[in-house]
Amino acid sequence: MATDRAMARMTDSARVEAFSDGVFAIAITLLILEIRVPTARTGLDLWHALGDEWPSYSAYVVSFMVIGVMWVNHHTIFSYIARVDRTLIFLNLVLLLVVAALPFPTALVAQNLREPQASNVAVAVYGAVMVGHAATMALFWYYVTRTGHCFDDRVDIRAARATRARFSLGLVVYPATVALAFASAVLALAVHFVLAVYYAFNQTPVPTLSPEDR
Description:
Helices cover 72% and strands 2% of the residues. By secondary structure, it is mainly α. The chain has a two-stranded antiparallel ribbon.
C-alpha cells in the first residue's frame, strides 16, 4: 500500500528532461559570449588579434565538448526513466546547478591562461567544478539505481547497480586534474578535453533486460 501511494506521487519524466535540456542549451550557448571580437586597422593586425584570442578558443572548445557530453549522458539516462519523484527532481536540480556554473570557470580560464600563476588557479577552479559534476552525477545514479522505481521495465536494476563504480570514476580522475593544474595549466585543460572525448565514445550503457525477462 505504501509503495502504491509513493508511485502515485511520482510524475512523468518528460517535463524534468525538457527543463534540463533548456538549462544545457543556455549553458552551452553562453560559452561563445566569452570570445571577444577583436578590432584592428589592417588585415595583418586583425590576424594577430584573432590569434591572441587562443585562450578563449581553447576554453570554449573544451567546455563545449564537456557540456555536450554531459547532455548526451543525461539524455541517455532519461531515455530509460519513466517517472520521477521529488528527491530525483532535486538531485537533478543540483546536477544542473553545476552545468549552469560551467561558463564561469570557462571565462576564468580564457582570461588567465596566459598568466603563469593565475592560469594554474583558473584551471584548478575549472577542475573543481568538474569534481562537483562527478559527485552530483554519482549521487544521481546511486539514487536512481537504489530501488529502480524510476526506471521503465526495460532496465535490469541489479546490473544497473553494478555500474555505480564506473559512474563514480570521475571522483578519482577529476581531483587529479585539480592537482595537475598547479603543474601545468595547459596540460590539465587538455586532459579535460581528452576526458570529454573518452566519455563521448566510452559511455557506461544502461543495462537492459531481454524481452522475455521483462
